[in-house]
Design brief:
The chain is an alpha/beta fold. The chain folds into two domains: 230 residues, 3-Layer(aba) Sandwich (Rossmann fold); 95 residues, Orthogonal Bundle (Helicase, Ruva Protein, domain 3). Helix content is 41%, strand content 15%. The protein is built from 13 helices and twelve strands. Helix 11 crosses helix 12. The radius of gyration is 24 Å and the shape is globular. It starts with a helix and ends in a 5-residue tail after the last strand.
């Protein structure tokens, strides 16, 4: 969070300064610092980017890197992500040009090897190349009301110099690369210990450097345009437990409100919450796993809720979460 906070503050401080002192020549020009999120699935990458845009009150859009192709090929070309941001800004080009674009699954664009392929890589390295100018800052033509370009259409000029790009990915397979580099670097310094870096260390992404990302398959030019690397650790049991209950829109609070609309009081017992966390960890999808677990467990209860008496109290136990058992149903006392 600290890395991201500093990067974003500097970015928008740079924009504010440029808008005030745009007529001063010879000023030191501060380059844009786009951000790279590296973290496992469900660690909060998308939520962080979305929350950031909400707090700053700037337009925000998400692009799926795996859906992008080079211009001229079937699929969404790279410039289409600007159309989505323009739509998010209600087609206000000035607001859009100061928005945030989150490019998800950037790791899926990694080259699969050093050997040149006979067929052109239109969805991997080719897209990395196509992203370069946009990340650095360019003027692209965007359809005025979204949709695809066509020859007779008047396009809107979209300047990307002030758009903050955040790229994120799970980077499966990066941890062994980092561990191997660190182990090799330790030879000679800790030879007596014979210690090797554990590739399963949950904090290993904190030590990722540009060399690791290049070995993974990102091209050096793309890495250079994403100078701020913000590693995210995987969520542990205590984190998932807090996510279930503490946020304003916590999943348990959402279900409680849904049942309250039918006059039913829903209570999650502590051991039920523990069971939900345990099942989510087994799914290995981070915070997303919590919703999967609860949706499955609560389906039957949600189906029956409209028929329950308004004075009913439904207690969700460990058995409900683990085995789909019936919940404990009580009558709410008059004093309550």
């Amino acid at each position: 969070k600290k890395v991201l906070s500093v990067a974003v503050y500097n970015h928008y401080n740079r924009l504010r300064h440029q808008s005030i002192h745009s007529d001063i020549h010879g000023e030191v020009e501060i380059e844009k610092s786009n951000v790279m999120f590296i973290g496992p699935t469900g660690s909060g990458k998308t939520l962080l980017a979305r929350t950031l845009a909400k707090v700053l009150d700037v337009p925000f859009s998400i692009a799926d890197a795996t859906a992008l192709t080079e211009a001229g090929y079937v699929g969404e070309d790279v410039e289409s992500i600007l159309s989505h941001l323009l739509q998010a800004a209600d087609f206000d080009i000035e607001r859009a040009e100061r928005g945030i674009i989150y490019v998800d699954e950037i790791d899926k664009l990694a080259r699969k090897g050093d050997n040149a392929s006979i067929t052109r890589d239109v969805s991997g390295e080719g897209v990395q190349q196509a992203l370069l100018k946009m990340l650095e800052g360019t003027v692209a033509g965007v359809p005025p009301k979204g949709g695809r370009k066509h020859p007779e259409q008047n396009l809107i000029s979209f300047d990307t110099r002030h758009v903050l790009f955040i790229c994120g990915g799970a980077f499966d397979g990066l941890a062994p690369i980092i561990a191997r580099r660190q182990s090799q670097a330790a030879i000679g310094f800790h030879a007596r210990d014979g210690k090797r870096v554990d590739e399963h260390d949950p904090h290993l992404f904190r030590h990722a450097d540009p060399e690791d990302l290049m070995r993974y398959g990102l091209i050096p030019e793309l890495i250079g345009r994403l100078p701020v690397v913000a590693p995210l650790d995987g969520l542990e049991a205590a984190d998932l437990r807090r996510i279930l209950t503490e946020p304003k829109n916590a999943l348990t609070k959402q279900y409680e409100k849904l049942f309250a609309m039918d006059g039913v009081e829903l209570v999650f017992e502590d051991d039920a919450l523990d069971a939900a966390v345990e099942k989510a960890i087994a799914l290995k999808t981070g915070a997303r796993g919590l919703r999967t677990v609860l949706e499955e467990a609560m389906l039957g209860l949600m189906f029956d809720a409209p028929e329950a008496r308004p004075s009913t109290v439904i207690r969700v136990t460990r058995g409900v979460i683990e085995h789909g058992e019936a919940p404990i149903i009580e009558e709410r006392s008059e004093a309550a």
